[in-house]
Amino acid sequence: MAITREHELHRRRSGRNVGLALVLLAFIALVFGLTIAKVSGGSTLQAFDHSYRPVLDPDNVRFQQR
Amino acid sequence: MSDARVDIPYAQTGDAEFRDYIALLKPRVMSLVVFTALVGLLVAPGSLHPIEGLAAIIFIALGAGASGALNMWWDADIDAVMQRTARRPIPAGKVTPQEAMSLGVALSGMSVIMLWLATNALAGFLLAFTIFFYAVIYSMWLKRATPQNIVIGGAAGAFPPMIGWVAVTGSLSLEACLMFMLIFMWTPPHFWALALFMKSDYHKANVPMLTVTHGRKATRTHILVYTVALVPFALAAGFTSIGGPVYLTTALALNLMFLHGAWAIWRRDEATAEADAYRVEKRVFRFSLYYLFVHFGAILVEAALASLPAYAEFALQFKILEVF
Known about the structure:
Structural class of chain B: mainly alpha
CATH superfamily of the largest domain in chain B: UbiA prenyltransferase
Low-confidence stretches of chain A: none
Largest sheet of chain A: none
Largest interface: A-B, 16 and 15 residues
Mean pLDDT of chain A: 82
CATH topology of the largest domain in chain B: Tetracycline Repressor, domain 2
Largest sheet of chain B: none
Number of domains of chain A: 1
Order of helices and strands of chain B: HHHHHHHHHHHHHHH
Number of domains of chain B: 2
Oligomer: heterodimer
C-alpha cells in the first residue's frame, strides 16, 4: 500500500536530501575539474589512444628539434 | 579550558531543514571570509588555474564555516540566553549539538585536506590553524576566560586573506602580514562598538566582555586606542606591492573617518549614549563594516589598475616597502 499522507516532516527531509545531493554533485564536479586542472597543468590534455602518435613522443619531439 | 560551560539539553522541535545546516556555517561571516580570501588570492604575485583558485576559495570558506559550526556547538548554552543568537539552529532546537559538532569536525578535516591538495601544504596548515584558533583558542578558552577575548580571537578572522595569498605564492610576505594585521586590529573596535549597544546580551550570558569587566568608559578608551593602532597598518599596506595611490587615498579617508568615529565614542558618556539610543556607537559599528570592505576593495582596484602601464609606472613610486 502506498503511503499517501504527506507530513511537514517529509517536506523537510526531502529538502535535506535534495540539498545534500546537490552538494555532493558540486563536490564531484569540483574534484573532477581540479583533477583535470592539475593533470593538464594549464595545457590541453592529449594521450595515446591505441595508436602511436609521434607528436606526443618526447624522444621523437627532441629528435625533430635537433 | 574554562569550566563555565553548562550542558543544556535542547528541546528538539523536529527534523532540521537544509538551511539550518547552512545557518550553522555562519554564512554572513563566510561572505567576509570569501571576499578577503579572494582579494588575497587575486592580488598575490603568480597565478593559479581558475579551477584551483575557485577550489581554494570554496575550501577556505568551508573551513571558516566548519569553525562556525564548532563555535555554535560549544557556545550553544550562551547563545540560548542572548537575544542576538537565541534563534541559531541549536538553541532553537532545530539541530542537535552532536550534529553541529560532527558537521564541524567533518568539514574541518575535508576543507584542510582539499585546500592542501588543491594548492599547497602551507595554505592547508594555515587553514587548519585558523580553525583550531577559532574553535579551541577563542571559543573554548578565551571567550569565557578574558575580556581580551575579542583581541586574540580576531586573529581567526584575519587569516583568510593570508591563506588566499599563500595559496598562490606558497609563502608568507609583508603584504600578507599587513592584510592580516588590518583585520586583526580592526576586530576589537568593531566588536566593542557592538558590545556597547548590545550590553544586556553579553551581561546576561556572563561573557567577560570588556564592557562587563572593565566598564563602559574603559571600553570607549580601548576602542580609541585600537583604532589609533590600526591606522599605521592600514596605511603601510599602501606602500607595498598591493598598494598605490588609489589605495592610499581611500585608506587615508577611511582611517580619518574611523578615527573621528572612535573619538566621538570616547568623548561620550553613558547618559548621552542612552539618551539617543547609542546612535554614534551604532553608526561607527556600521561604518566599520564598510571600512573593511572598502579597504579590500581598494586593494583589488589597485591590482586591476596595475595592468595599465602608465598607472603601474606612476604607482611604483609609492611602493617603497616592496623590497621587504
